[in-house]
Amino acid sequence: MRGIALTVSDILFQEGLDARIQLVKELASEFPCVTCICVRDDACDDSMLGDTLDRILGEWSKDIVVDGPYGWAGRDMEFCPEVAAVTVRSMEDLDTVVGHGGVPMPVGDVGFLTDASHAVGNGGMLCLEPTTMKDCLESCTVLSRSLGPKVGTAVRVWSGEYSVSVATVALVCGASAVLFDDVDRDGLECIQHLLRWRRHLV
Amino acid sequence: MREMYIGIGDYALGGAVTLPFLSIDGAKRRRPLVFGEVRDDPVPEQMDGTVFRNHLGDLPAWASVWKDLGADGVCLKMAPGPEAAQTVKKVVERTRMPVMVCIGDDDVATLHEIADTVSGSMLILGCSSEGSYRRVADFAGSHVVTTVPGDPLVGDGCIHPDSAVLCRYDIRGGTEGLSEIKGLRSTGLSRGDEGLPVICDVTGAWEMYDGDDRRMAVLESNSALCAMLAGADAVVVRGSGAADMASNHGEELAL
Lengths: 202, 255
Description:
The complex is a heterodimer.
Chain A: E1 3-9, H1 14-30, E2 34-40, H2 46-59, E3 63-68, E4 83-86, H3 91-99, E5 106-107, H4 110-120, E6 125-128, H5 133-147, E7 152-157, H6 161-172, E8 177-180, H7 185-195
Parallel strand pairs in A: 1-2, 1-8, 2-3, 3-4, 5-6, 6-7, 7-8
Chain B: E1 3-6, E2 11-14, E3 33-39, H1 44-47, H2 59-69, E4 73-78, H3 84-95, E5 99-103, H4 108-117, E6 124-126, H5 130-137, E7 144-147, H6 153-156, E8 163-168, H7 179-190, E9 198-201, H8 213-230, E10 234-237, H9 240-254
Parallel strand pairs in B: 3-4, 3-10, 4-5, 5-6, 6-7, 7-8, 8-9, 9-10
Antiparallel strand pairs in B: 1-2
């Protein structure tokens, strides 16, 4: 996964869900850096997540990320996302997730990153969940120093102007992807500029 | 890296000991300086929605607005001419802020007159070519002189003790466009006291202006953020919104 993912929650009602999908589609056609849609498993309910995925699969041709507290492991669904994001808080959790191939993983603790990145290994991707620009800068730096380009880094951010600043920090520090809860056109224009020179997006 | 005092001596430029903002490496808790642009040939439609709109023909008054807004300094961009030196002097006396001066075509005679006229404040004399840097360095005295990133003197030792490097960047350059500033910081760190501070002008972002002031603030402030993350010790901005955001971003990252 490379580029930007915009989030859709599985607890949205039908009208809200349709409107949100349409908006993400519009933004994706306007800004090629939007390469993914991220489905957030807020309901923690397989049937609601499945319904949401069905709606999206009918209309969305790019990559899909599923982001939730349980990852993809153990789910009984035909669909399998390109990436399953899982919240990981401990090395025990990490072992479980890596065992199921469930990466990337949002990690908030800088001290945890080096161990985590070794556990993910080549080809994996760590997803950071920084709350501040400083946290983002130092987390990405620790990761790139300990692993170089072997493990990709994704950063999940919320919405609003500050999230664009955090995403800017992430991309300047070499992150491959940003998962936005929400972002407006002005913010996406900035991100598009930052990513435009990466050949895979041109 | 080399540290130098500017203005009346109450601001320091440079002095970095690590890559930008990395507290884990022992970075100084000092944010990059933010300079507000003041120019004698503003594009009126760009200024219509700004707090500067009533002061466009009066550069000292425009500079004072920057001071009221909390900028660290001003960057005067003017055409060459005999009145330039008096204008700079007025701005210095009225604001007592650090002042950077860029004269059209790097007119050396005008810069010479400015350097001789202004005393009591260490100016930054902006030169945008190696040739003008060498000529201005001869008479700069206690003022700081800028050169350009490609100048071989940046790596081989400078001919003026208070020198800096002047870059330009805006977000259209993407992350790869930052490699020049990143390189200057990395090289500068390896050279210790010989490493020169970097000043980055991000006002080029205004070429994307389409009448939407908020969009412009986002584009320019993120351009400034990128420059600071890459290693700029000071940024030059045009919009007050971008100055405010750049200052806040720098403050937060430097904590």
